[in-house]
């Protein structure tokens, strides 16, 4: 009996050692975060200087003006981002923030259509869009005499050719349309407009954007001090407003407007200053995109739970914290963010929610309280690192455009006149809105990095349905008609 107790204590110390080592490796002191900030700003500058000059793609969106608040009329949006798509009708009253409650319809894309042809996919979408338009605002059949103006959010990697056109770079999120990524690549908007023509739908794609650009547009519509937008959800990305003369790689090709929205594709950012661990290395090597999307794998909702699972699996193999190693603990991505946040934020003395999740979702009953506490600490370590790195990413953008109080990197010039200027960053995504501890850690780090003199001037503002309403606003901004219906 004594021998068993000694062995048990030895195994428990080993488990605590694993947690202590992880905590040390995941440490994000403000000095390290500032190194990440600098690295982000430098990579942004390099990505704007030349194609392929940085891990950040810094894609041109050709969105060179944002909603002013004077837009008026009825506009449509189509949000395609995975196995579902949404259609919206948005009515604008001509005054900033005067958006009536949008009419929204969602439809699933059958699995066989996701892997068929572009014609099948876009015919399905165009049919649903025509039915939606024909029904009108009150649900009854109506005749639309004027051409509809559509904002098209297509949340897949796209190389833009203009504000309303682009080529699909690669298929992701279950989409595999061979004729769109073959040697002769199909133009995304052309596929949709041809389908609308086949369905005799009188509609034009005014803009083609991704979800971050739509979020920035809606944020700017509500608050003209909005200069950037970030998505924190299953995945993550950011875009921001850049001055024309800072976009070195496309000098001479840009419009006469003062700037353009840049789609950073920041999920692929990487820095030697990241607090990386062996678990991150293993996660990356076993992922569907090795050596790719490094930043996303450290901060996005899709991967946080997987990092926790990998650490917990090692702990269970090196000790008997669960008795035998639970079979479900070996299932990749079984830990989802709602589970992680619920366990992390369980404030009951006996950690009842932690016990429920372990039993119901992982089939691990009767877990001792000290192990449940260990799991909460593990969630805290992984989430805190992610949130603080996310904050560093945001400040990196601010530094690049001279909004962090340091002058920043602005096309080779320093700017001292914008140090104290009010700056709004639009935020969307359930990782930020629904996970309280992630949000609080991000805000804490933002203040640490910026300091108490600058931080009050930086506002993170939650934006709801940027990919939908924002796309409709951009359709209004780029509409060839002043009023469309």
Automatic annotation (TrEMBL):
Keywords: ATP-binding, Glycolysis, Kinase, Membrane, Mitochondrion, Mitochondrion outer membrane, Nucleotide-binding, Transferase. Its EC number is 2.7.1.-. It is found in: Mitochondrion outer membrane. It comes from the Eukaryota. Its main location: mitochondrion. Pathway: Carbohydrate metabolism; hexose metabolism; Carbohydrate degradation; glycolysis; D-glyceraldehyde 3-phosphate and glycerone phosphate from D-glucose: step 1/4. Residues 228-476 form the Hexokinase C-terminal domain. One of its GO terms (cellular component) is cytosol. It is a single-pass membrane protein. The keyword Transferase applies. One of its GO terms (biological process) is intracellular glucose homeostasis. It is an enzyme of class 2 (transferase). Residues 19-221 form the Hexokinase N-terminal domain. It holds the Pfam family Hexokinase_2. The keyword Transferase applies. One of its GO terms (molecular function) is D-glucose binding. PANTHER family: HEXOKINASE (PTHR19443), HEXOKINASE-4 (PTHR19443:SF6). Belongs to the hexokinase family. This is Phosphotransferase. It comes from Carya illinoinensis. The lineage of its organism: Eukaryota, Viridiplantae, Streptophyta, Embryophyta, Tracheophyta.
């Amino acid at each position: 009996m004594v021998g068993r107790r000694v062995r048990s204590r030895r195994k428990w110390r080993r488990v605590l050692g694993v947690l202590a080592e992880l905590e040390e490796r995941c440490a994000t002191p403000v000095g390290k975060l500032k190194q990440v900030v600098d690295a982000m700003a430098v990579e942004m500058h390099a990505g704007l200087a030349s194609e392929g000059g940085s891990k950040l793609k810094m894609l041109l969106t050709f969105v060179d003006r944002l909603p002013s608040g004077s837009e008026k009329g009825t506009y449509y949006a189509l949000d395609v981002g995975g196995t579902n798509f949404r259609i919206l009708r948005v009515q604008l009253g001509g005054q900033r923030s005067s958006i009536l409650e949008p009419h929204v319809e969602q439809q699933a894309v059958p699995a066989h259509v996701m892997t068929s042809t572009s014609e099948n996919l876009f015919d399905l979408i165009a049919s649903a869009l025509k039915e939606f338009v024909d029904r009108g605002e009150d649900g009854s059949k109506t005749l639309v005499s004027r051409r509809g103006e559509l904002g098209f959010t297509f949340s897949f990697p796209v190389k833009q050719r203009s504000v309303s056109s682009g080529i699909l770079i690669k298929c992701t999120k279950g989409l595999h349309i061979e004729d769109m990524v073959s040697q002769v690549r199909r133009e995304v908007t052309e596929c949709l407009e041809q389908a609308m023509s086949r369905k005799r739908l009188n509609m034009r794609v005014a803009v083609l954007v991704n979800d971050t650009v739509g979020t920035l547009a809606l944020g700017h519509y509500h608050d003209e001090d909005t200069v950037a937008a970030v998505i924190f959800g299953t995945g993550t990305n950011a875009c921001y407003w850049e001055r024309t003369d800072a976009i070195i790689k496309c000098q001479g090709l840009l419009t006469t407007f003062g700037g353009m929205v840049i789609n950073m594709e920041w999920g692929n950012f990487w820095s030697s200053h990241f607090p990386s661990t062996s678990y991150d290395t293993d996660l990356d090597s076993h992922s569907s995109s090795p050596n790719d999307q490094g930043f996303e794998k450290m901060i996005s909702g899709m991967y946080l739970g997987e990092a926790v699972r990998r650490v917990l699996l090692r702990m269970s193999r090196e000790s008997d914290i669960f008795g035998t190693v639970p079979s479900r603990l070996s299932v990749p991505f079984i830990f989802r963010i709602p589970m992680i946040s619920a366990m992390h934020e369980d404030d009951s003395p006996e950690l009842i929610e932690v016990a429920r999740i372990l039993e119901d979702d992982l089939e691990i009953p009767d877990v001792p309280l000290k192990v449940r506490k260990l799991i909460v600490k593990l969630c805290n370590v992984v989430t805190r690192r992610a949130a603080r790195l996310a904050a560093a990413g945001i400040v990196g953008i601010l530094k690049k455009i001279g909004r962090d109080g340091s002058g920043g990197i602005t096309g080779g010039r320093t700017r001292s006149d914008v140090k104290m200027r009010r700056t709004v960053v639009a935020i969307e995504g359930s990782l930020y809105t629904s996970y309280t501890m992630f949000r609080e850690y991000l805000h804490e780090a933002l203040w640490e990095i910026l300091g108490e003199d600058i931080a009050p001037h930086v506002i993170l503002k939650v934006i709801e349905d940027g990919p939908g309403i924002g796309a409709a606003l951009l359709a209004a901004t780029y509409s060839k008609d002043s009023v469309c219906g």
